[in-house]
From TrEMBL:
Active site feature: 145
UniProt keyword annotation of Cytoplasm present: yes
UniProt entry tagged with the keyword Oxidoreductase: yes
Assigned EC number: 1.2.1.38
Protein role: Catalyzes the NADPH-dependent reduction of N-acetyl-5-glutamyl phosphate to yield N-acetyl-L-glutamate 5-semialdehyde.
Organism encoding this protein: Micromonospora radicis
Ranges of residues in domain Semialdehyde dehydrogenase NAD-binding: 4-135
Enzyme class: oxidoreductase
The name this protein goes by in its record: N-acetyl-gamma-glutamyl-phosphate reductase
Gene Ontology annotations for the cellular component aspect, listed alphabetically: cytoplasm
Length: 333
């Protein structure tokens, strides 16, 4: 028996992707998968891609989860904190929700509402010094999917003094799985296919997280719903502070990172190339007219934006190579 792992909220899209990754992990042994309305159902009745993974969803209660060495919380925002507080201190937790991402209680109140549960170690290993912090942590707050995409594109430019932190503009498109699995009229195929639509314009909940982790102080973010199941493509622009090659800055920052790839000159990211992998693809240039820095980033919102990122963090927490059980390779077409 290896490291015993439980997944709470395993009936959702991110939970299902976690189950898939854990099924092939050489050190993590899945012992429990919990759900609410799907409790009592076989896993493959909810996730047909997991046929052969013989397990039944249990109820999401602390006593069941407390038997694991590691718990992934793949619950809706606002539901993780209360459950985590009931788990023993010796159980390590990676929270895929937003409950413990923000250090600023006022930002939580503005964008989420309700009581602020406090900040945990932020789970983006590629930030400077963050691998060491994650490795020492027993509680880690996984990134948001948009946040991971934009922070990876932006943070090195601000850290290097190449981009003005007070003038950042982002337009990013995401697949429908980013909105979760609950039935919603605006996510019906008839509503989504053949259409692009902005949402939460000027008030998306990932804005304070992006600012907190990237160093940005002024951010305009427009998210767009795209007619595809999964994937994010973000175009990030910033005002330069001088003459700079943004691609060179990114290449230096991620030279040793296994999951962030700055593409060769002239090759631009696209979402299909990242599907199923735990990778982020980047490309950058300078706009010839405005002079603004432009970075385009793509990742799988259920992979590097959620479940893959969570496994990467858990690997670090247990002293494993962060690549264990993960691949940067996509599955297109």
């Amino acid at each position: 028996m290896g490291i015993r792992v439980a997944v709470a909220g395993a009936s959702g899209y991110a939970g299902g992707e976690l189950l898939r990754l854990l099924a092939g992990h050489p050190e993590f042994d899945l012992v429990t998968a919990t759900a609410h309305s799907q409790a009592g159902q076989p896993l493959d009745a909810v996730h047909p891609q997991l046929v052969g993974l013989e397990m039944t969803f249990a109820e999401t209660v602390p006593d069941v989860l407390a038997e694991a060495d590691l718990v992934f919380l793949a619950l809706p925002h606002g539901q993780s904190a209360a459950l985590a507080a009931q788990l023993p201190a010796g159980v390590r937790i990676v929270d895929l929700g937003a409950d413990h991402r923000l250090a600023d209680a006022s930002a939580w109140a503005d964008y989420y509402g309700g009581p602020h549960a406090g900040a945990w170690t932020y789970g983006l290993p590629e930030l400077p010094g963050q691998r060491t912090r994650i490795a020492a942590a027993t509680r880690v707050a996984n990134t948001g999917c948009y946040a991971a995409t934009i922070i990876l594109a932006l943070a090195p430019l601000i850290a290097a003094g190449a981009a003005a932190p007070d003038d950042v503009v982002v337009v990013a498109a995401s697949g429908t799985s980013g909105a979760g699995r609950a039935a919603k009229t605006h996510l019906l195929a008839s509503e989504v296919m053949g259409d692009l639509s902005p949402y939460k314009v000027g008030a998306h909940q990932h804005v304070p997280e992006i600012k907190q982790a990237s160093g940005a102080t002024g951010l305009s973010f427009t998210p767009v719903l795209a007619p595809m199941p999964r994937g994010i493509l973000a175009t990030v622009t910033a005002r330069p502070t001088g003459t700079v090659d943004p691609r060179a800055v990114l290449a230096r920052a991620y030279a040793d990172d296994p999951f962030v790839h700055v593409l060769p000159e002239g090759r631009w990211p696209h979402t299909a190339a990242t599907l199923g992998g735990n990778s982020c693809h980047l490309q950058a240039t300078v706009d010839v007219d405005s002079g603004r820095l432009i970075v385009v980033a793509a990742l799988d919102n259920l992979g590097k934006g959620a479940a893959g990122q969570a496994v990467q963090n858990a690997n670090l927490m247990f002293g494993l190579p962060e690549t264990t059980g993960l691949s940067p390779l996509g599955v297109t077409p």
